[in-house]
Write a structure and sequence with these properties.
88 residues; mainly alpha; 3 helices; 47% helix; elongated
Length: 88
C-alpha cells in the first residue's frame, strides 16, 4: 500500500473558511484527494484536504511552533492625538 505523510483525517470538527485557489492548485488538490482515497480507503473533498495540509504544515513548522509558544506582551494602543478645530 502507498504511504502518505498526511495521516487520516476524515473525522474532524471544522470552521468554515472560503479560499480562492488557481486552476492548477485545484487540479493538484483533486489528484491528491484521489491519492488519499487510494492510500487510506476514504474519500475526502478538496476543502478537507487543503485544511489538513495547512494544519499539517503548521504543526511541523518548528519556527512557527516556537513563535506560537512564546508569551507575547500585548501592546497598549496609543491614544490618538486630540483633533484640533480650524477656523475658516
Amino acid at each position: 500500500m502507498n504511504q502518505s505523510t498526511l495521516p487520516p483525517f476524515h473525522i474532524t470538527k471544522t470552521t468554515k473558511l472560503s479560499v480562492d485557489v488557481d486552476h492548477t492548485l485545484s487540479l493538484d488538490l483533486k489528484a491528491f484527494a484521489d491519492f488519499y482515497s487510494h492510500t487510506h480507503g476514504a474519500k475526502v473533498g478538496e476543502a478537507e484536504l487543503l485544511r489538513e495540509m495547512a494544519r499539517h504544515y503548521m504543526a511541523n513548522d518548528t519556527k512557527f511552533q516556537s513563535f506560537r509558544q512564546k508569551p507575547r506582551r500585548r501592546r497598549r494602543a496609543q491614544p490618538s492625538p486630540p483633533e484640533t478645530e480650524t477656523s475658516p
